[in-house]
Amino acid sequence: MKGAIKQICVLVDDLDAAMKNYWEKFGIGPWDIRHFTPDTVRDFYVHNKHIETGFDFICAVTWEGDVEYELIQPVEGPNIYWEYLKKYGSGLHHFKIVIPDDEELKAYVKELEEKGLKVMQTGWIDNDVHYYVDSHEQLGLTLELGNGGRIGEAPEVYPAKDAKRPVSHRQNIKQIAIVVDDAEKYMENYAYYLGIDGWDVRHFTPEKLRDFKVNGAHITEGFDFICAVKWVGGMEIEIIQPIKGDNIYWDFLEKHGPGFHHIKDVYPDEEIKEECRRLSGYEVRIMQTGWIDGDSHYYMSTENLLHMIVEFGNGGRIEAPDYVYCAKNGK
């Protein structure tokens, strides 16, 4: 894959409430807030139509380590966000690949279009350009590409530019994951469209996964789900397909279909336990947990607060995969 994954975006229908939860309950912020309007955005196109008047959407951004969080709320006029919110509701929307060189970026966008991923929305704000491509069917999420160009100082900051962080834990986002109904199909697609190939594939079964609990119930038999992972720079991409038995993935597929399921925050086990205890005060519970070799996972019920699921994990060592999948049509 060209470029680097630098941003994760969540679409919301109430930006103020979302920022408040991110900041007060998770310490994520402060947020730089900008309205994208005809006064601030130029060369704005939605589905190939040049939009010059009557649009407004709010973008709030903050850096958490090496990853930029973005919250977007559409306000009026044409954009691609209304379509997503109407179909799926608030939730994870895209990750952003940053390619600083404008010519290299344009060439990559053209390459993706030639493969069938058409640009749905594009525009400039100051020195920053964005291109959203229609990749949900192929990749399980929308893909954004941009140059990461400089944008002028934000006119608003929440809660304040020099606000003292209310939570000591700082996230260390190391994984983005999609849940799908056909892991091989999506591994093929990631290889073909983005050149991401050579996936470590494991079946999570009773023989490999210990202390497996789903919604508090200890599950000891009759389950199987596939996890395929691949590191891309400093970010791991995970593709999960449930096969049988209890897990949290079936419910997601039933409600959303294949899509962007969670992000993973990696830090030591003792800190994870403390964070789980702290979040229980906000009625955040562990939905699924288990161990494979030296690696632990805890999926947290954070959707009501963050409009996404956050997984905690220790990033522990896992033995060799069942096999490595190399795509038939990868490039």
List the helices and strands and how they pair.
Elements: E1 4-11, H1 15-26, E2 31-36, E3 42-46, E4 49-50, E5 56-64, E6 67-76, H2 81-88, E7 91-98, H3 102-114, E8 119-125, E9 128-133, H4 136-139, E10 142-146, E11 156-158, E12 173-179, H5 183-194, E13 199-204, E14 209-214, E15 217-218, E16 224-232, E17 235-244, H6 249-256, E18 259-266, H7 269-280, E19 286-292, E20 295-300, H8 303-306, E21 309-313, E22 323-325
Parallel strand pairs: 1-6, 7-10, 12-17, 18-21
Antiparallel strand pairs: 1-7, 2-5, 2-11, 3-4, 3-8, 5-6, 8-9, 9-10, 12-18, 13-16, 13-22, 14-15, 14-19, 16-17, 19-20, 20-21
Structural summary, described in words:
Strand 5 (56-64) and strand 6 (67-76) form a beta hairpin. The chain has helices at residues 15-26, 81-88, 102-114, 136-139, 183-194, 249-256, 269-280, 303-306; strands at residues 4-11, 31-36, 42-46, 49-50, 56-64, 67-76, 91-98, 119-125, 128-133, 142-146, 156-158, 173-179, 199-204, 209-214, 217-218, 224-232, 235-244, 259-266, 286-292, 295-300, 309-313, 323-325. With 331 residues, it is α+β, with helices and mostly antiparallel strands. The mean pLDDT is 97.
Summed up:
By secondary structure, the chain is an alpha+beta fold. Helices cover 22% and strands 42% of the residues. A hairpin with a 2-residue loop joins strand 5 and strand 6 (67-76).
What are the defining features of this structure?
single chain; 331 residues; alpha+beta; 2,3-Dihydroxybiphenyl 1,2-Dioxygenase, domain 1; 2 domains; 11-stranded mixed beta sheet; 8 helices
